[in-house]
Amino acid sequence: MLNLFRAEWKKTTGNRLLVGCTVWIFPILGCGALSLFSIILLASGESRQDFIADPPRWDDIGVGVWGIANFPISRLFLISFAATLFAGEYQYQTLKSVLPGNQRLGLIVTKFVTMTAFIVMTFIATIVILIIGFGLICLIFGADYPPSLTSDTAGEFLKDLLLNASITFASTLIFAGIAALVSILTRSILFGVMASVFLTLLESLGLIFGLILIAAITKIESVTDIYLLTPTYNSANILQWVNENTPSPPIVDGRGTLSLWESVAVLGFWIILMVGLSTFAFQRQDIQ
Question: What angle do CA 155, 174, 70 make, to 5 degrees?
Fold first, then answer.
């Protein structure tokens, strides 16, 4: 297993275009955002005064970075990375040469581990860049940079960071699992990306409008409760419970919501389903 991971890691890092355009794009954009923000502060005295009067909090910056992964455009990059990772050997017809004997389970597990490692690394790098970058900006312009770093604030920050990272990554893993499954079934990077993006947009945007329209036509509002079973709602609901101790509102006022542990169970089901289906499909596939 360790040899498989080393080989997969080396192969992935060797594809600089893939890694640079899909996962390292986040810390690169972080650097760009810091540069743009600095230019705005230098060019506008009013913006500098507002910045000094209401400076950013380093703990909010660190925790908030993980929320970026839930944006549809961010998922597009991560889905593209997952699709290429899982369908690359099909596309370049190298699967037979990298799959000696009966090591399919080990290979697909290694791919999921590699994908996880890259995503975690890129968001940690983005967090470090933004926290240090905004700290330097505050230092240059004479602004405070709360809160003060103590054992209590550090402990609270790490707790919030791990909670938000775990929830966001669980949601990301589901959509990456969709990309992996489609890529394995179609043996195509392009189809993997296209189908996964379509399903992601359908689940996060199209389903809401569709259910509201059906409820309006049929006068059956309970049909909108289907949205409570989606990964997007349950990720948001868990974060809402953790951060605000209240449920995320339903798409139609007056309908029911899910408790914290109900959402955890639904999200866990989706993770097991998508990773399990990807593994099963790869195990049963005829490698040509």
Answer: 60
pLDDT digits (tens, 9 = 90+) for 124-176: 999 999 999 999 999 999 999 999 888 889 898 898 888 888 887 888 788 88
Which domain range does residue 73 map to? 2-284
- Is residue 288 very low, low, confident or very high in pLDDT (cuts 50, 70, 90)? low
Please state whether the predicted TM-score (pTM) of the whole model is above 0.85.
no
Burial class (CB in 10 A: 0-12, 13-18, 19+), 46: exposed
**Number of structural domains found in the chain:** 1
